[in-house]
Structure formats: structure tokens, C-alpha cells
Amino acid sequence: MDLVLHLADEYVLDKVWAHLVPLSAFAASSANSSLLSASASAFNTSAHPILISDPSSSTWTNLVSYLPHPPLSPETFVSSAITSLPATSAWPRDYLLRQVISLSAITLIGIHVLYILFAYLSYRYIFNHEMMKHPKFLKNQVKLEIQTSLRAFPGMTVLTLPWFVAEARGHSKSYESVDEYGWAYLVFSIIL
Fold first, then answer.
1. Which end of the chain offers a freer environment for a tag, N or C, measured as fewer CB atoms within 10 Å?
2. Rounded distance, CA 68 to CA 73, Å?
3. Whole-angstrom Cα distance, residue 182 to residue 148?
4. Does an H or E element contain 168, and which?
5. Domain finish residue from 35, 50, 84
6. In a domain, 2, yes or no
7. Nearest Cα to 93, choosing from 188, 178, 147, 16?
8. Number of compact structural domains in the chain
């Protein structure tokens, strides 16, 4: 799954995350926090921080600025650095929350595509349509079976997601190079 996540990040998800959680959304909050800490130390008060809102920023940017994110260095927010870079997400590829959401979306999309494809092919070419004439066959049984399957997918995703995240974060014994253990180990691992 780490290969699938890497390819999805490379071709689709980097752009999606840069749009949903842009780095620029945290520039204002970083500037506000540095202004607040400077003013609090100057006045020696412990007042609750009040964020200075930027009237030019959108509602979405204001909401995003409250999301958790990994520590960002102050030089990241130099205005020339933000404008010269392509759209960048505040959540890097190895950020746990981004990986969990990305893997959930990939898994749900993948499971729906596989189900629809193979259920259609099975119904079309393997299923005995004469069974539908049997008295115990319900009038809307096919529809009910499809609905039951679709309702089960989120639960299946929750059960498999920890394994996918662990693999993407490097906590698996899988290897990418045959030279690492040799061909004999590869053949033996398939048999097991």
C-alpha cells in the first residue's frame, strides 16, 4: 500500500492537499502568534491570545489555520518563499493525519471500484439467472445484496486501515529489492 500511496501522492494527492490545507493558511497564524508573544512579553501580561484576522483571507483559510500541523519553521513563512514555491501543503507526505485520510480515501475508492467491476462481471457471466425464478428468491434480492455490501465497506476500511498505515510508515517486513534477501527467500515467502 505504500507504493499505491506514493503514486497517489505524486500524481493526485499533493495537489489536493495543497488546495485543502495550504501552507499559506498558517502564515497568518504564525505571524499572529509571534506578534502576540512579542506584545505579551512587552506588556508582561498573560492575557488569552486573540488572533488578528486578515480581512483578505477566506473563511476556508481561517478554518484551516486551526487544524493541527507539524511544527513549521519561521523561514518557511517568508513571503518571497511562499510566493515563489508552487502550491504546497502544510501537511507533508509523512504526516500521520494526512496518511490516514489519504489511505482511507484510496481504500474506499478502490474497494468500490473492485466490487462494482467484479460483481458486474460475476452477475453478467457467472450467475445463473434461472435462479431468479425460484420461489424463495426475493423480489429485490439483488438490490438488497448490493446495499449490504456497500454498507460493509466503511467497517472493512476501518479494520484494514491500521495495517495499511503501519506499512506506509515502514513497520512491515516487506522489502522492495530481491537483492536484499535473494530469490530463494522470495519463492519461500510466496509459498508461506
1. C
2. 15
3. 44
4. helix 141-168
5. 84
6. no
7. 16
8. 2
Q: Is residue 108 one of the residues assigned to a domain?
A: yes
Print pLDDT tens along the chain (192 aa): 888 999 999 999 999 999 898 887 776 555 444 443 443 344 444 443 434 444 445 788 788 878 888 887 766 555 544 555 567 888 999 999 999 999 999 999 999 999 999 999 999 999 888 888 888 888 889 999 999 999 999 999 999 999 999 999 988 877 777 888 888 888 887 887
Q: Alpha carbon 104 to chain centroid distance? A: 6
Q: How far apart are CA 157 and CA 73, in angstroms?
A: 35
The answer to whether 18 and 87 are in contact (CB under 8 A) is yes
Residue 98's φ and ψ, nearest 5 degrees, are: -65, -40
| 145 within domain boundaries | yes
Which residue carries 475508492 as its cell?
Answer: 109
Q: What angle do CA 178, 13, 68 make, to 5 degrees?
A: 110
Rounded-to-10 torsion of CA 155, 156, 159, 162: -110
Domain-embedded: residue 120: yes
Domain boundary among 55, 84, 113: 84
φ/ψ of 41, rounded to 5, equals -70, -30
Does this model's pTM top 0.90? My answer is no
Do 33 and 108 fall within a single domain? no
**Nearest alpha-carbon partner for 174 in 161, 159, 184, 185:** 185
- Distance CA(71)–CA(30), nearest Å, equals 11
